């Protein structure tokens, strides 16, 4: 069974309201039906970046590849060859490949198609009989594919579409992505905290698995709370007149907190997270829709299509998965690795996502904090 929740977006500068598929949060891990409980995709839309059609000679609003590569000092023009980033989402986006082509052409990125072997789309069992179309999830898919393209244009992209947004189907899609030899797998969805033993889909040694921390402020969600993933928080990213050229603060919508069910990461032991078990998040990237990213999606959703500006930790999860791919180390590391390379991040030291105790779980500080983890990428040294 599905419900409806309301997510914020803006047509011009003020935030309006849009309905998207919602999750049914389990009362507890022991009583939840994994086959029936569903996730929601955290997606925020900041209106149209241009009229609802491609304008190749116009610059869409929102950050594009050059902005993101500059902000995070990434070797996107030279690294990533031979790497595959998998995107796991629910339902079908019938225009995924075509929309990806529009985005990459707009920014002068090399084509990534089924024909040239760069792009592959499968269902959760690896076949080509796709699930029903869902316009809300289609926009999520376009966002995820565009972020891989922006960060790692030399990477191959694997899209795995789950039959529905249930734990079981999305989990099977993650397993399929791993079976198809993805180097990194991004998951832009989440639900209530549950145990890894109840949803044992994210433990894939040698593959970097990332998950969005959530878009509702302080509070933990799964699979970001899994012991086996890199939990990705969110920031507000702005240009600045400093040596970096950019500044970041906590995005107030980013999720954070302590799992009560899953084991802590050993790498986080020296960072005073305030959690006896798994702490969320580990790292972060831009997520505030007010400083969002340009995305192209032609499947109409709530009257919108074409160039739009997107935010949410739906943005930051595929960004971080793609940085893992740029680093090319996933076969030999796990999600503790960033903690032993914490100097390779831009520390985010201001902002909050709510009220909490201890305060580092929801307030930025020097070093690790809940909303942004260790910070945002400063090159690929932390990955």
TrEMBL record:
Q: Which Gene3D superfamilies match?
A: Peptidase S8/S53 domain
Question: InterPro entries from the entry?
Answer: Peptidase_S8/S53_dom_sf, Sedolisin_dom, Tripeptidyl-peptidase_I
Provide the leader sequence positions.
1-24
Q: State the UniProt keywords alphabetically.
A: Signal
Work out whether the entry's keyword set contains Signal.
yes
Tell me which residues make up the Peptidase S53 domain: 62-383
* Superkingdom field: Bacteria
The entry's protein name is Peptidase S8
What species is given as this protein's source? Catenulispora subtropica
């Amino acid at each position: 069974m599905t419900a409806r929740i309301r997510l914020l977006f803006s047509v011009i500068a003020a935030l309006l309201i849009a309905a998207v598929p919602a999750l049914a949060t389990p009362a507890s891990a022991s009583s939840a039906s994994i086959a029936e409980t569903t996730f929601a995709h955290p997606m925020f839309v900041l209106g149209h970046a241009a009229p609802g059609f491609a304008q190749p000679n116009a610059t869409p609003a929102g950050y594009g590849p050059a902005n993101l590569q500059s902000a995070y000092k990434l070797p996107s023009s030279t690294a990533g060859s031979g790497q595959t980033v998998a995107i796991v989402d629910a339902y079908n986006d019938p225009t995924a490949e075509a929309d990806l082509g529009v985005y990459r052409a707009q920014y002068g990125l090399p084509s990534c198609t089924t024909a040239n072997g760069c792009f592959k789309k499968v269902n959760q069992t690896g076949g080509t009989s796709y699930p029903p179309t869902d316009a809300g999830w289609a926009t999520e898919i376009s966002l995820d594919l565009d972020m891989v393209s922006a960060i790692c244009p030399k990477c191959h992209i694997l899209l795995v579409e789950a039959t529905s947004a249930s734990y079981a189907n999305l989990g099977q899609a993650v397993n399929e992505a791993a079976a198809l030899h993805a180097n990194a797998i991004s998951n832009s969805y989440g639900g209530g905290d549950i145990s890894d033993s109840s949803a044992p889909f994210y433990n894939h040694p040698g593959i970097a698995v990332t998950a969005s921390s959530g878009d509702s402020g302080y509070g933990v969600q799964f699979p970001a709370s899994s012991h086996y993933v890199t939990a990705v928080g969110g920031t507000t990213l702005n240009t600045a007149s400093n040596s970096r050229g950019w500044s970041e603060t906590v995005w107030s919508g980013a999720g954070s907190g302590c799992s009560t069910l899953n084991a802590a990461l050993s790498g986080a032991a020296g960072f005073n997270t305030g959690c006896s078990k798994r702490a969320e998040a580990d790292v972060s990237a831009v997520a505030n829709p007010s400083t969002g990213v340009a995305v192209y999606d032609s499947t109409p959703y709530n009257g919108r299509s074409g160039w739009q500006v997107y935010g949410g930790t739906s943005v930051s999860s595929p960004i971080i998965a793609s940085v893992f791919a740029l680093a090319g180390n996933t076969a030999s590391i796990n999600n503790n690795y960033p903690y032993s390379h914490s100097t390779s991040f831009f520390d985010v030291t201001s902002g909050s996502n709510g009220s909490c105790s201890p305060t580092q779980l929801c307030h930025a500080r020097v070093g690790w904090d809940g909303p942004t983890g260790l910070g945002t990428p400063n090159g690929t040294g932390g990955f």
